[in-house]
Specification:
238 residues; DNA Polymerase III, Chain A, domain 2; 8-stranded antiparallel sheet; 3-stranded antiparallel sheet
């Protein structure tokens, strides 16, 4: 069972699940309690990149895998408050369905700690790259989606002075994932969509690049995407 403390928490989880289902109607969602007490929700996107968001919910089991459509239905179903004193916007408890751990094909999750801040990239740049890539995919892609050569193409080479991380090569698949999941926001705090003008995104709105020796992560306002990198450079946490 999942406890949703208030409507904002329900909305945060619903937004993540809805975007995940738009990308893949057969996806599964992994819900895992972190050592710091927060709860991370995870999905493997069709771009072969993990997407995650931290939500303020309660879970009975520390690590479950549930069907995306079943969870979305449960989130859309009105729930009675746990107590008459809570009122209609008070805590709710939903059943996400049976846990199906064998359905998780996302592999091991990245570590909860140890990521080094490499540098920030303007969100406008990330969204612009995604749109340029989408245009290429429309002309060169096929029934299976964008060509692998496009997804694997390095579109950002990020390095930070004094971070000890060396350079992080960011592939197009990660850029596609962070924008497709709706993690970037505009100047009004709304999710950036395919029709959002680039100038509506604040010029100083960042997408933060963090890394370990084997993982890299793009952190935007509404969530993060993670992908593996070559373990060739030693990192010094800061």
């Amino acid at each position: 069972m999942i406890d949703l403390p208030d409507l904002a928490d329900r909305y945060d989880l619903s937004a993540f699940v809805s975007r995940a289902r738009v990308l893949d109607d057969t996806a599964v969602i992994r819900i895992r309690r972190r050592p710091d007490g927060a709860v991370g929700v995870w999905v493997r996107t069709p771009f072969d990149v993990l997407a995650t968001r931290s939500v303020r919910i309660g879970v009975d089991d520390p690590d479950i895998v549930v069907d995306v459509s079943t969870l979305q239905t449960a989130l859309r179903t009105p729930s009675a408050p746990q107590s008459p004193l809570d009122g209609p916007a008070g805590p709710a408890r939903i059943d996400p369905g049976f846990s199906i751990p064998s359905a998780w094909e996302g592999g091991a999750l990245p570590p909860d700690t140890g990521f080094v801040h490499v540098d920030d990239v303007p969100a406008r740049t990330v969204v612009g790259l995604s749109r340029d890539g989408a245009e290429v995919a429309r002309t060169e892609g096929g029934p299976q989606g964008p060509p692998p050569s496009l997804l694997d193409q390095t579109v950002l080479d990020v390095s930070g002075a004094g971070s000890g991380s060396g350079g992080v090569e960011v592939p197009m698949r990660a850029v596609f994932a962070v924008t497709a999941m709706g993690f970037v926001i505009d100047g009004a705090g709304r999710m950036v969509t395919a029709t959002t003008p680039l100038h509506a995104i604040d010029a100083d709105e960042p997408v933060r690049v963090r890394a370990t020796s084997t993982w890299a992560r793009l952190d935007a306002r509404f969530g993060s995407v993670c992908f593996r990198r070559a373990p060739s450079i030693a990192l010094t946490p800061i």
